[in-house]
Design a protein that fits this description.
2 copies of one chain form a homodimer. Chain A is an alpha+beta fold and about 230 residues long. The first copy, chain A, has one domain (about 10-190): Pnp Oxidase, Chain A (Roll). Chain A is built from 4 helices and 12 strands. Chain A has helices spanning about 25-35, 75-80, 120-135, 150-155; strands at about 25, 40-45, 50-55, 55-60, 65-70, 85-95, 105-115, 115-120, 155-160, 165-170, 190-195, 200. The longest helix of chain A is centred in the middle third of the chain and has 15 residues, at about 120-135. The radius of gyration of chain A is 21 Å and the shape is globular. The two termini of chain A are about 35 Å apart. Residues about 1-5 of chain A have low confidence and may be disordered. Chains A and B meet through strand 2, strand 3, strand 6, strand 7 and helix 3 of A and strand 2, strand 3, strand 6, strand 7 and helix 3 of B.
């Protein structure tokens, strides 16, 4: 579970304090977790009250893009330079130990701190919005109608640099106390995965079309029976 | 998608502003979403910087319990009366529309604002820790070793009242512009679900034991082939 390289945090406030051996500050690790997560949770502060709002994101290079209605409180605050904390969490499994205390979840999470810039360049907005669709379904952005001027204007786009970021992961089985190993109970991990169910068509179905394969965030998904 | 009852927010700051028709303030709806979520994201503020930390939770009655190392920053701040925002998000499906703009996710989310109390009663701590294990695997808390004094002391427990809370949900297919309905592309929803894979045993396996069924948070889970 120990990472193979010595972790060094990009800043004191991104240094993982609890169980530091689970920390990782490698951009490759951080990017991969961000890319796999379907949603992120954006934290911001209004009048000393924290708010945490879920939203879709896109990681591109060393930036994390989030978008929303130009009128949304989160967007307005972030665009005005509010300090943000964006967190993503992937739950990989349930860890069933031989004591209540050692029960846990396997997970991979990333925390990004910083201030976002408002993307004003229309070409950049178009490219990122297309990539957001590509993320969920490769090839789809060109197959659907592109945004019109009104839609572009109604949607604000923010870019948060992934400079102050840390990852934290737990993998593997339960870490039981030696004295508990003979406890007469099953112990181990039940891995979890996001699965895609049978597609539900939105009528009218265009002739000759079929439901697309989902993209990278669903790379681990298996289709299972709906119900 | 419109809820059948007029939504009334418990406070101005929990009122859902964006797309208010997706809001719900019914305790039953809020509790069900909290119960199904595997993790929550806890937002708190330190020196004007928001932090968002994922953790396991338990909803019991009208309280949301979160726990952690007694030394964790999140716990220390929350126990000292810090304002919190706890958010859970369930991603239910990918909404593939006929325009980039109308792509979306189906989801159910809950936001709870408030201040937590530190649970100091040992019996209450024991009960909640047992219920946290029950939540993942019914019947298991009594089958494993209960917490000892050291473990109880090392783990702090917080209870957040679910008084200032709101739910927000999106369900159903894409809401395409009328003019786009004939676009030659598949449109609809690909539902998502958390699936449990084949259990991984932690040796030494106690004789005659088998991997348990997972509990309520995994109520929708289907077992699929691992790999």
């Amino acid at each position: 579970m120990q990472n193979s390289h010595p972790p060094t945090a990009p800043s004191e406030r991104t240094r993982v304090r609890r169980v530091p051996k689970r920390a990782d500050y490698e951009p490759g690790v951080i990017h991969a977790i961000l890319d796999e997560a379907l949603v992120c949770h954006v934290g911001f502060v209004v009048d000393e009250q924290p708010f945490v709002i879920p939203t879709i994101h896109l990681r591109q290079g060393n930036e994390l893009f989030i978008h929303g209605s130009a009128a949304s409180r989160m967007i307005l605050h972030a665009a005005a330079g509010a300090r943000l904390c964006v967190t993503v969490t992937l739950v990989d499994g349930v860890v069933l130990a031989r004591s209540q205390f050692h029960h846990s979840l396997n997970y991979r999470s990333v925390v990004v701190l910083g201030q976002a810039r408002l993307v004003v360049d229309q070409a950049e907005k178009r490219q990122v919005f297309a990539s957001l669709v590509e993320r969920f379904s490769p090839g789809r952005s060109a197959a659907v109608r592109a945004p019109n001027e009104l839609e572009l204007k109604a949607t604000s786009l923010l870019a948060l640099p992934i400079d102050e970021a840390s990852a934290k992961t737990r993998t593997g089985g339960p870490i039981d106390d030696e004295a508990d190993l003979a406890w007469p109970v099953w112990a181990g991990v039940i891995p979890l995965r996001i699965a895609a169910l049978a597609p539900e068509v939105a009528e009218p179905l265009a002739p000759g079309t079929t439901a697309p394969e989902l993209g990278r965030p669903f790379g681990g998904a298996r289709s299972v029976e709906g119900g």
